[in-house]
Amino acid sequence: MLPVTSVYRWNGAVERAGEIALHIKTLRSRTEAVEKRIAALHSYDLPEFLVVPVLEGSPDYLGWIAEEARSTDA
Question: The whole model's pTM is what?
Answer without folding.
Answer: 0.76
